[in-house]
Amino acid sequence: MKILILFTFLAYTYSQAEDSDDNTTELLNEKFRLNGLSTQDAFGSARGKALSATVRLVRNDKLIALGGFVDPSGYVLTKASDCVGAREAQTSDGKTYRLKIKKRDEKTDLALYQLISDKDSFPVVQWGDENSTRTGSWVLSSFSKLEEIRVGVASGKPRKIGREGGVIGVILGADGDSVGGVRISEVVPQAAAYKAGLLKGDVITSVDGRKLKSRDQVAKIVGKNDPGDVVRIQIKRDDEVKFFNVTLGHRSVTFDLFNRNLQMSGPVSKRKDNFPMILQHDLPLPKNSMGGPLFNLNGECIGFNIARVDRVTIYALPAEQVRETLSKFLGK
Amino acid sequence: MRGYPIVLFGVFFLRLFLPAEENQGKAWELPVPSNPKELLEIQDRLQSLLPKVQGALVSIEANDGAGSGIIVSEDGLVLTAAHVIGKSNKKMFVRLPNGKRAPAVSLGGSELSDAGMLKITKAGPWPFVEMAPKGSSQLGAWCFGLGHPGGFDKERGLVVRLGRVIGRKDETMRTDSRLLGGDSGGPLFDFNGRVIAIHSRISKKPDENFHVPIESYLANWEFFQNETLFTMEKMEKGGFLGVACKEAKGGVMVVETIKETPAESSGLQPDDLLVSIDEQKIDNREELTILIASKNPGDEIKLEYERKGKSMSSKIKLGKRPGE
């Protein structure tokens, strides 16, 4: 069903405006905007706590993720899949530390690192109750350079995010367009179906031997497989029957190339599916600033940012999930 | 600062009736919040408004796309974006936040502002929200958006975004409320829970997005409801007067007349206030364009206008829009 939604949606993701047309429009001073400096200042001590409890994780002098202090001796939690090869951590006071990895957890995509230091008074996050955060509640996190914060609101219901199945990388025509199958109306360039040799106009009649008549069915059967799995697709091309073995791709990788909405979003997290529970919010943070803690208006940590999904959506693992994983990491 | 005296009056009257609760200004009416307490007031206000307005949000499902919309009348009129409905008289479905589906048909709109309208064809009563009156949302006003980006999703529910009005110009409102392409047609509310705009287009800058102001709907209500979608093509082929105008009180004001057009030969001048065409009052620039371009080149219109406070009237034969 989600695949179908994505397909049907592409039609409406193309409406974008030129930014150059209104130099004459009077715009609100940037400092008064939602993420302006004046608004950030209003967050007071929550702002200070967010900045001091967050660290930058660096590889080859480049920021790859943020993390948050969870123990005064320098333990830091972060997003595991974005942090591979992190060597250094930088704190908001400008200091740099060497890093070593301690643990990783596949289920939550969290990893535990330790800053190499004798210091045992790192400013740890204070845990809050994520259940007090409702849709419309303020949330904030440190921004990339640890000099500013980004603010926004919890924007959707907390929920489980299911696994993204593999995709063949085509846009399917409307049901009933062709007899006994589903017509391909677009082949995503460089994606799985393209590489296998499928063409626009081909009519898919079966997948792995199962006959198909609707877009829903194609999406469902293909989506049961994981990226990397091979499915056998039967098509009709100019009255000729052909078979193709298609190695499925990642949905995000496949459609991000095609989706201008996401092109305008900038890079999104590679792993953004299959989480036991998430809080959704709309902080404007780039992909390389995932892994850091998320705070409420009181400056309490209510989660860790775990995936940038698109230009307006970030998923955070709720504090309860994070603490559970942390206890496991620390063997408590 | 337009409308400032009216706000003061409003507060004055509220004071008479609600003496205890009204204190020295609400956090969301300040130029900028300055402490966590004021931020909390903004959050509380937003969260108290959500349950009142979210029941009227719909996701729109047509066989070639989807979007969002907001019900604004008991009998099921829905405001959305023109690019969501695509054309008039198209059958579609709306889905309410509780997941229930109802049949609907697209009415009119305008590609100039991207305003669009549709109607639920099943009998109501439907939950609906109030629309803000003309000119009520000022630069810096706090606002919040609702939508179903990517279509209806029961697990996620509707999506809420917070922001401020950062710009207003003619047929466009801009806010820093975050927006995704898939939010198209969803409503933007003020902090009184009234619709002030409809989501239209995203900007490359994530905090400078575009919305159709409610004024576009209010000015062209009958035209939109009359099941007509005003298209760019119609504008290019329809009647042409040849004036550049700006919004003004009581009509639209001529800024410039273009050479060798009906406007020039009829003697229209800068600062003339155009009031009505064929007895229909002109509320904004878009309405003027729609009224004129809905006629054909060669048709005659009766234009009423004011020059230096004096009422004038003239019959003008429309021309053809010059090609690029």
The pLDDT mean of chain B sits at 87
Counted by DSSP, the helix tally of chain B is 8
Overall shape of chain B: globular
Shape of chain A: elongated
User: How many strand units of chain B?
Assistant: 21
What is the H/E string of chain B?
A: HHEEEHEEEEEEEEEHHEHEEEHEEHEEE
Report the top-level CATH class of the largest domain in chain B. Mainly Beta
Compute the number of helices of chain A: 8
**How many structural domains in the coordinates of chain B?**
2
Structural class, from secondary structure content of chain B? Answer: alpha+beta
Most extensive interface, residues per chain?
A: A-B, 57 and 64 residues
Assembly state (oligomeric) = heterodimer
Largest sheet of chain A: 6 strands, antiparallel, barrel
- The strands making up the biggest β-sheet of chain B line up spatially as 1-2-3-6-5-4
Q: Look at the structure and give the CATH class of the largest domain in chain A.
A: Mainly Beta
Return the CATH architecture of the largest domain in chain A. Answer: Beta Barrel
| C-alpha end-to-end distance of chain A | 41 Å
Query: In terms of structural class, how would the helical and strand content of chain A be classed?
Result: alpha+beta
Please describe what this structure looks like.
The complex is a heterodimer of chains A (332) and B (324). With 332 residues, chain A is an alpha+beta fold. Chain A folds into two domains: 30-161 and 268-329, Thrombin, subunit H; 165-249, Pdz3 Domain (Roll). Chain A is 17% helix and 35% strand. In chain A, strands 1-2-3-6-5-4 form a six-stranded antiparallel β-barrel. A six-stranded antiparallel beta sheet of chain A has the order 7-8-15-18-17-16. The longest helix of chain A is centred in the C-terminal third of the chain and has 11 residues, at 319-329. The radius of gyration of chain A is 23 Å and the shape is elongated. By secondary structure, chain B is of the alpha+beta class. Chain B folds into two domains: 24-230, Thrombin, subunit H (Beta Barrel), CATH 2.40.10.120; 231-320, PDZ domain (Pdz3 Domain, Roll). Chain B has a six-stranded antiparallel beta barrel with strand order 1-2-3-6-5-4. Chain B has a six-stranded antiparallel barrel with strand order 7-8-9-12-11-10. In chain B, strands 15, 16, 17, 18, 19 and 20 form a six-stranded antiparallel beta sheet that branches. Chain B is globular and about 60 Å long. The model of chain B is unreliable at 1-23 (pLDDT under 50). At the A-B interface, α1, α2, α3 and β8 of A face α2, β2 and β8 of B.
